[in-house]
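Below is how a single chain appears once it has passed through the pipeline. First comes the sequence as given, then the structure the pipeline wrote out for it. We keep one example in the README because the format questions we get most often are answered faster by looking than by reading.
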Amino acid sequence: MANSDIINDVDRALASDTRIDRTMVRVSSEQPGVITLDGQVDTYNEKILAEDIVGRVRGVIDVINNLSVVPPLARSDEEITESVIANLKRDSWVEWANISVETIDGVVFLRGTVKSRVEKQEAENDARWLAGVVDVVNHIVVKPEMKIADAEIARDVRAALIKNTRLDLTEMNLDVSDGVVTLTGEVPNFTQKRIAEFVAFSVPGVVDVLNELHVHGLRRPAA
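Resulting structure:
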């Protein structure tokens, strides 16, 4: 598939999604299949959505998300914190009393403990779409009610990955330590990298996933 065709498909995907203001996003590619997003969006949620939309386009093997979040209306850190807490209190999936919220220059920091990875993600979702939020740093710790042995978690994660017919596990490895799954090795494309992480998160007992998978032939320099 020609890189120009991939870029055109990315443009169409972004333009067709009403949640994104396509006119504010610049798409470029210096390496076949590697898409760079520049420009600005109104909310942190838009930044994450743009990356998800592009990552699903056939032929895309990696996404470099350089989008800046520039809220159209200024909100104080105190106002943002109050809005996040209000969202957490309304969310029946989250035990809000176990979570603390702090906002610094529009960046929301979430801390505390929850019982599942799903609850941790839902807490982040409650913060990321709010006006004024430019980033979300999720330091919430997952502490399952029942601890599952690492060997059992590794077995179940491996079985779940094998069952997913969209994944090529030839060069993928995993390790589990204290419930934290680390994925290493290489996958054919960006989509498989995301799918592998999602599958691992869905396994009972997993408290976090470190996705260190690389797309074939692509290894970003260390920060």
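The longest strand covers residues 34-41.

See the next section for the split statistics.
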